């Protein structure tokens, strides 16, 4: 029959939900501590609880060695010969238990010390039991009863243990009374803490998910799936749902007839606003839905790898899209898992203008890209502070000639090289135009030569069509007109004069 002490130990074990042997070990350790304090010894002590009598015996434990030479510490070792004086059956390599008197000598201080050790061991065992019990239930919803209030914290009874719900884990819309039954989420289990090791929450998104699973049969049976939840407890929750059955409207199923289903959840959350959104694989479409009730003008993916979106809305929709203190866009970003930059049409227009202006002002082309300048000339220009083609093109001939080592011929060389460079940027069109213009000038000079008409005469329109007629009469005062007559049928009497004129013009033609 078990002793009264052992019965008490079993009762404490059942109450705390721990193994009775853990409590027995705690009691034995407490007796060891008290005995060591009383005897002030460095011996290896051990206490043993007799289950039947309830008596706790303390012993000094020593190792048995063969020879005296092997004894290194008399407090821990004893020879076989010495051991057999107390225990005839002692053998080398075994242990000798030397009883220590404890009854009536430990006193009040030793008893108090033993009590503290017992309580400490029991608390540690209790924490281990709670940890092992609830570590597998993290993120699960459990029913709890408000046990007491400790300042802003709420202590909950969750069955075999207590849970603490801090202020950050509560909704600002909620207040609790002792004895009230609520549903909470176990967010984490802590082992090495004082007091309750379970941390519960009413602000976790898992609570909303659990409530929808309870209220919406389509979610419970898997027809409708919750793909994402973003929540700011006490303010607003956005939940994205998707239907696996094309005949089932996911949003309609969650709202319920006349909003009965979602209203039930809102009442459980003390009036927290809930936005139910249809999930889309396309992030652009999903972003448009997630930013409701604001109307989105367009969505652009800035960086798919970094999950970065840019959303543009009408100027009148900007404040609605951002929400109070940025709440709407913040929840939408959490729901998508993308970073969202939201801008109005006016802001976007100004940004584009600034970018265009920056591109114009920031265009920089190194001088080395211009063929025809040469390394020596480039070095001279750089020494004078001219480092880009753009700054070189803006300089006047006088400014260039002011640079040491650059004269008029070099200025002309620079002008040609820069013009050719900018012409090449236009895909060769400017070069083609320049060639066409040059060809036109050459043709005009040729026409002037062939007809003997000066450029000034052509510009003034002084030559008429009948001047080229065969009937035109030659004059000696205008060589140009002689050339005109030569173009027609010349009279026989003037043949020598025509040949002479041709002879005089031939050297000029060579020069041209």
Structure notes:
This protein has five domains: 4-127, N Utilization Substance Protein A, Chain:P, domain 4, CATH 3.30.1480; 138-203, Nucleic acid-binding proteins (OB fold (Dihydrolipoamide Acetyltransferase, E2P), Beta Barrel); 222-252 and 270-356, GMP Synthetase, Chain A, domain 3, CATH 3.30.300; 367-425, Orthogonal Bundle (DNA polymerase, domain 1); 439-511, no CATH class. Helix 2 packs antiparallel against helix 4. The protein is an alpha/beta fold and 512 residues long. It is built from 20 helices and 15 strands. The protein has a five-stranded mixed beta barrel with strand order 5-6-7-9-8. Strands 1, 2, 3 and 4 form a four-stranded mixed beta sheet that branches. The chain is elongated, with a radius of gyration of 52 Å. It has helices at 4-16, 20-39, 80-86, 107-134, 205-215, 217-220, 250-255, 260-268, 283-290, 318-322, 327-336, 345-361, 375-383, 389-393, 397-401, 408-425, 429-451, 455-460, 479-487, 495-511; strands at residues 44-49, 56-65, 77-79, 95-100, 141-150, 153-157, 162-165, 181-189, 198-201, 224-232, 236-243, 273-278, 296-303, 308-313, 339-344.
């Amino acid at each position: 029959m078990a002793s009264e002490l052992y019965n008490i130990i079993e009762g404490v074990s059942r109450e705390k939900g721990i193994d009775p042997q853990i409590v027995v070990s705690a009691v034995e350790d407490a007796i060891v501590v008290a005995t060591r304090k009383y005897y002030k010894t460095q011996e290896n002590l051990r206490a043993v609880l007799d289950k039947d009598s309830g008596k706790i015996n303390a012993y000094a434990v020593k190792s048995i060695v063969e020879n005296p030479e092997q004894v290194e510490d008399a407090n821990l070792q004893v020879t076989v010969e010495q051991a057999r004086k107390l225990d005839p059956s002692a053998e080398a390599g075994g242990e000798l238990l030397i009883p220590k008197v404890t009854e009536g000598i430990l006193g009040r201080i030793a008893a108090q010390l033993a009590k503290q050790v017992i309580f400490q061991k029991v608390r540690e065992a209790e924490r281990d039991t709670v940890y092992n019990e609830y570590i597998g239930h993290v993120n699960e919803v459990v029913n709890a009863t408000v046990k007491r209030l400790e300042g802003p914290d709420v202590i909950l009874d969750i069955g075999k243990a207590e849970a603490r719900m801090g202020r950050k884990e509560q909704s600002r819309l909620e207040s609790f009374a002792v004895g009230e039954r609520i549903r909470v989420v176990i967010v984490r289990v802590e082992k090495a803490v004082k007091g309750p090791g379970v941390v519960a929450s009413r602000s976790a998104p898992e609570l909303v998910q659990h409530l929808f699973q309870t209220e919406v049969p389509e979610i419970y049976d898997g027809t409708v799936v919750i793909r994402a939840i973003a929540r700011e407890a006490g303010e607003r929750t956005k939940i994205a749902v998707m239907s696996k059955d094309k005949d089932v409207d996911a949003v309609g199923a969650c709202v319920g007839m006349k909003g009965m289903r979602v209203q039930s959840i809102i009442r459980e959350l003390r009036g927290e606003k809930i936005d139910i959104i249809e999930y889309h694989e396309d992030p652009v479409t999903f972003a448009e839905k997630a930013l409701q009730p604001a109307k989105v003008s367009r969505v652009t993916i800035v960086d798919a790898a970094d999950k970065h979106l840019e959303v543009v809305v009408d100027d009148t929709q900007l404040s609605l899209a951002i929400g109070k203190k940025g709440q709407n866009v913040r929840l939408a970003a959490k729901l998508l898992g993308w970073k969202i930059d939201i801008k109005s049409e006016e802001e976007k227009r100004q940004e584009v203008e600034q970018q265009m202006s920056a591109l114009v002002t920031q265009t920089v082309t190194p001088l080395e890209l211009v063929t025809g300048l040469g390394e020596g000339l480039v070095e001279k220009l750089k020494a004078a502070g001219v480092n880009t083609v753009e700054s070189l093109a803006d300089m006047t001939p006088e400014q260039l000639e002011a640079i040491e080592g650059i004269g008029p011929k070099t200025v002309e060389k620079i002008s040609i090289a820069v013009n050719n460079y900018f012409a090449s940027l236009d895909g060769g069109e400017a070069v083609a135009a320049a060639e066409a213009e040059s060809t036109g000038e050459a043709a005009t000079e040729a026409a002037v030569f062939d007809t003997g008409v000066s450029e000034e005469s052509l510009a003034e329109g002084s030559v008429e069509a009948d001047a080229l007629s065969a009937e035109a009469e030659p004059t000696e005062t205008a060589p140009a007109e002689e050339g005109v007559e030569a173009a027609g049928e010349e009279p026989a009497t003037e043949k020598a004069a025509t040949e002479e004129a041709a002879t005089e013009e031939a050297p000029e033609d060579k020069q041209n």
